[in-house]
Amino acid sequence: MRIVWLMFGALMTILLAVFGWQQLRPEAPVPASGDLPPVRAVVYRAATAPRRLASQDRRDQLVSFALRQLGKAYCYAGTTPEGGFDCSGFLTYVYGQFNIDVPHSSALQYKTGSAVPRAEARKGDLIIFTGTAKDATTPGHAGIVISEPGQPLRFVHSSSSKRDPGVKISQVDGTDYERRFLGIRRVL
Question: Where is the NlpC/P60 domain (predicted)?
Fold first, then answer.
């Protein structure tokens, strides 16, 4: 029994040494009022400027992260870089890395966030298309806009194309995506 108590005492000593050392340290002395550094004036800009900058940085980071997935394989219902992505799984994965919940369905993604006119599409927006059938009218494909307003509309997506499947960059103007275009959704 003595060994048990010795082990218990040793364990408690170690725990106190590891977790309690900060409590035993003397506190740093508080400077006398004459020892305080001079106060500097702080100028605040309009409240929207920092928010706009942070939002732009976040969009850039999201697009940069999405572009790092270029070349990853296409996989029906896939949601990981290792296993591959389908189009909506790619969006779910990328936005999820930024703590933004996006459903794993292009039909539900078409209802996510707020609608934005095509001319105002910017980096980080969702872009939704119909399926590939000529008479399709419902959401069937999705991607992430990588261009800014005034530029040709480009997006990164996971394509099931027979000739070039996987995560890649495509353009809307002058392609079949023009015919299939449904809308832009803003979630950032």
Answer: 56-188
User: First vs last Cα of the chain: how many Å apart?
Assistant: 63
Is 57 inside any structural domain? yes
Q: How far is CA 43 from CA 82, 127, 154, in A?
A: 48, 39, 39
Check the CA dihedral 187-52-116-128 and report its sign. negative
- Which structural domain range is residue 85 located in? 51-186
CATH number, domain containing residue 153: 3.90.1720.10
Return the amino acid letter for 133: A
Distance CA 78, CA 165 (A): 13
Report how many domains make up the chain.
1
Indicate whether 29 belongs to any domain.
Answer: no
Per-residue pLDDT of the chain (188 residues; tens, 9 = 90+): 667 666 666 666 665 555 554 444 444 444 444 444 444 443 334 444 445 555 889 999 999 999 999 999 999 999 999 999 999 999 999 999 999 999 999 999 999 999 999 999 999 999 999 999 999 999 999 999 999 999 999 999 999 999 999 999 999 999 999 999 999 999 98
**What CA–CA distance (Å, rounded) separates 157 from 140?**
13
- CA nearest neighbour of 109 among 75, 69, 141: 141
